[in-house]
Specification:
The structure holds two protein chains of two kinds. The model of chain A has no long low-confidence stretch (mean pLDDT 92). Chain A has five helices and no strands. By secondary structure, chain A is mainly alpha-helical. The longest helix of chain A has 28 residues. Chain B folds into two domains: 114 residues, Ubiquitin-like (UB roll), CATH 3.10.20; 127 residues, Fumarate Reductase Iron-sulfur Protein, Chain B, domain 2. Chain B has a five-stranded mixed β-sheet with strand order 2-1-5-3-4. In chain B, β3 and β4 form a beta hairpin. By secondary structure, chain B is α+β, with helices and mostly antiparallel strands. The chains are: A mainly alpha, B alpha+beta. The interface between A and B is large, with 36 and 52 residues. Chain A: One of its GO terms (cellular component) is membrane.
């Protein structure tokens, strides 16, 4: 990528503010995907501590029993739920399911592919993620 | 009644600030903005304000335009942060005292607001934008290729593309991937795949079935939101992918 190409670059790709809820979902999908990847790597490292025996395992596990650890786990729950629900929506869309049918467009040209089904899917993913996160926080901090 | 309307129109007349991005790749190291005061009425388009600047204040502003009626696809640019056609965007609908115009993203800049379209035309050409079949309607004893209204409906929406490049400018994949085919070309691939007269479906699908082809689209939908002709490239791309995944025959 060079200046000559005048690419918008990562800053433009990651800017969720200009193109409605669909672009927000695109951004959250990438963010939650990267977050889950980071968690997955951390999880492998965490479980590898079993090789240090029971004491080593318990020592490391205590990290997740702190306030910060609970908040991180709650965010992981939210990312997991959003990525799953929105992923199902996107997979169906990728197969051409629920994206509308071709038809002669009429002004003001509202795109049929950005229809209410997909909007409901996006808002559902966000709401379910928020509910799951709050439930997780209630369980972890309610001990 | 006409007098009332005239009064209302006159009440709208005002001066707005037009910020134009200036950049000459042969001389400048970075983009700079110049501000101009321009008179606007409620029907004034952004293109008209730019032409006003060229006529009365600075004739060196570089801009490409032609038809002034959203048909030629020449005057695409970033207006207040979003890709739009300057001739199809009224200043009044922007609801802002400052109108900022910049060259479209993801296209090399020629000068100021004018960008190069070579890559868009290359990718458009790559997907074979014509009926691909051995016979032709042009032979003397041939009959025209008949098509029902229902068959026409399958692709006519996508035939409205004016190749303005706004979809490629809004696409988040185009923002980072220099080799991506882009929503314009992919939507046109669907336009011909869905045409009952076309026989080149398999070869066309093979062209876009590559690492920087259709699989790099992540259905962000920004292309469809900025299309000034209602083409809905996102729908075309997903339907095309439906063909490739076996959801459609």
């Amino acid at each position: 990528m060079t200046q000559d190409e005048h690419k918008e670059g990562f800053k433009g790709m990651a800017n969720p503010s200009r193109y409605g809820i669909e672009r927000v979902a695109y951004w959250l999908m990438r963010l939650s995907g990267l977050g889950l990847l980071a968690y997955f790597i951390g999880h492998i490292y965490e479980t590898s501590n079993i090789l240090r025996g029971r004491v080593g395992w318990n020592e490391f596990l205590e990290l997740t029993q702190t306030t910060e650890g609970h908040i991180v786990l709650a965010i992981v729950i939210a990312m997991c739920v959003f990525h799953t629900v929105n992923g199902i929506r996107v997979m169906l869309g990728h197969g051409g399911v629920g994206v509308g049918k071709p038809a002669r467009p009429d002004y003001p040209y509202d795109p049929a592919s950005q229809n209410y089904r997909h909007k409901i899917g996006i808002y559902s993913a966000i709401i379910l993620a928020a509910i799951a996160m709050m439930y997780g926080l209630a369980v972890m901090f309610g001990e | 009644m006409a007098q009332v309307s005239d009064v209302a129109d006159n009440q709208y007349s005002r001066t707005k600030t037009l910020r134009i991005a200036r950049y000459n790749p042969e001389k400048d190291s970075e983009k700079q903005f110049m501000e101009f005061s321009v008179p606007v009425e409620k029907w004034t388009t952004v293109l008209e304000t730019i032409l006003n600047v060229k006529q009365h204040q600075d004739h060196s502003v570089g801009v490409r335009y032609s038809c002034r009626q959203a048909t030629c696809g020449s005057c695409g640019m970033i207006i207040n942060g979003k890709p739009r056609l300057a001739c199809f965007t009224k200043v009044s609908e922007l609801d802002s005292d400052v109108v900022t115009v910049e060259p479209m993203n993801n296209f090399p800049i020629i000068r100021d607001l004018a960008v190069k379209f070579e890559r868009l035309f290359d990718t458009h050409h790559k997907i074979k934008p014509y009926l691909d079949r051995d016979d032709t309607e042009l032979e003397s004893d041939a009959k025209e290729f008949l098509q029902s209204p229902e068959e026409l409906e399958q692709y006519i929406q996508f035939a409205n593309c004016i190749k303005c490049g706004l979809c490629n400018s809004a696409c988040p994949t185009m923002a980072t991937d220099s080799s991506f085919v882009g929503p314009q070309a992919l939507a046109q691939a669907y336009r011909y795949v869905a045409d009952s007269r076309d026989k080149g479906k398999d070869s066309r699908l093979k062209i876009i079935d590559e690492s920087h082809g259709i699989w790099r689209c992540h259905f962000a939908g920004s292309c469809s939101q900025v299309c000034p002709k209602g083409v809905d490239p996102a729908m075309g791309i997903q339907l095309l992918r439906g063909y490739m995944l076996g959801f459609k025959s």
